[in-house]
Amino acid sequence: RLTIKTKLAAVFGVVVALSGASMFLALQNLGHLNQTLEGIVNGPAARSLQLKEMQEDLTGLSNNLRAMILSSDAEALTEQRQRLAELYTELHADAEGLIGAFTVEQTNIDMQTFMETLESYWTVSLQVQDFAEQNSDVEAFAITTSEGSAAITALEETMGSLIDALGRRLANGDISTLPAYETANAMFLKASDAFRQQRNILLADDDPAKQDEWLNDYRTALADLAPGFAQLMRVAGSIEPTLVAQAQTDHENMVLAMDRAVEVSTQRTQYNANVLADGEGATLRSEAVDLLQAMVDRNDVVLEQATIDANAVYEQSRMLLIGLLVGSALIALLAA
User: Of 312, 235, 326, which Cα lies nearest the Cα of 29?
Assistant: First the structure.
């Protein structure tokens, strides 16, 4: 039979052994749990944050491009273009850094596809930015409201003076001035009509079909102006040579200003920017958005599973330690 001293020594030895085993297993499981958590933080969790930042940058690319199309301020356009370049550089670098970083191979394939789609989208975006910076609608209106308005005002003043001078001659009984008077009045109206047609073209820069229609009307009006002023020179040149010569010069200046405005307007850069952005640009952006979302969803599944696995390790370690503690207590109780 064992003495009390021997029993106490045996129980103490078993308890110490179980405590040592508990400590060893605790440290081992703690290391495994720490490694698992570190893998989550530096793996799927970090990649989840990166993917969501990429989604924000992609949205920023689209929003800034749209703002650039709508802007008419040269300084704002320059700032928006610079911001777009920064966003693209950051987004491209993030995508490049994540290729091959995922544990799911399909996500690595999708990231490569995303980067290629992003590059194609950026190529389209650069074309849209070029169109937006040209700002043809704003430039055309600037020309017509400065050069054009000055030219038509000068012509109308000269023609008004010429009509008045011819009218006085006619009122004084000089019937020979009647053809000149009628021609001057007709050309005054035709010049005003041509200028109106030019303005119509500028107003229709977002409607190619309507702009082409009004462009034909404008060309018809111009074609009627040139021989009309030549006729005015023939019938009134000897009567009021100074005013007729000035009217001819004013007419030529007006046509030059109108043609400049029309040439710029028919470039339709804002319209082209919208068509390109809403067409090919929108398609590529949608593809990029879908790819990113698919990668986010897939990575969230990986993150969720990693969290479940880490929790399972924790629960397993906890139950094992509780079991060892309970066993130690039972042995001590039985020995007593």
Answer: 312
- Provide the 3-class DSSP secondary structure of residue 118: helix
Q: What is the mean pLDDT of each run of 10 residues along the chain (336 residues)?
A: 59 59 55 53 67 90 92 89 94 90 86 94 96 92 95 96 94 92 94 94 93 94 91 91 94 96 94 94 94 86 67 63 61 57
Shortest CA distance to 52 belongs to which of 219, 300, 327, 328?
Answer: 300
CA distance 313 to 298: 23
Cα gap 210→271, rounded to integer Å: 13
CA nearest 258: which of 310, 330, 200?
200
> What residue type is 281 in one-letter code?
G
Per-residue burial over 190-217, b = 16 or more CB atoms within 10 Å of its CB, e = otherwise = bbeebbebbbbbbebbeeeeebeebbeb
Among left, alpha and beta (phi > 0; psi -120 to 50; other), residue 183 is: alpha
Task: Report the C-alpha gap between 115 and 89 in whole angstroms.
Answer: 12
Contact between 52 and 25 under an 8 Å Cβ cutoff? The reply is no
Q: Is the dihedral of CA 23, 26, 29, 35 positive or negative?
A: negative
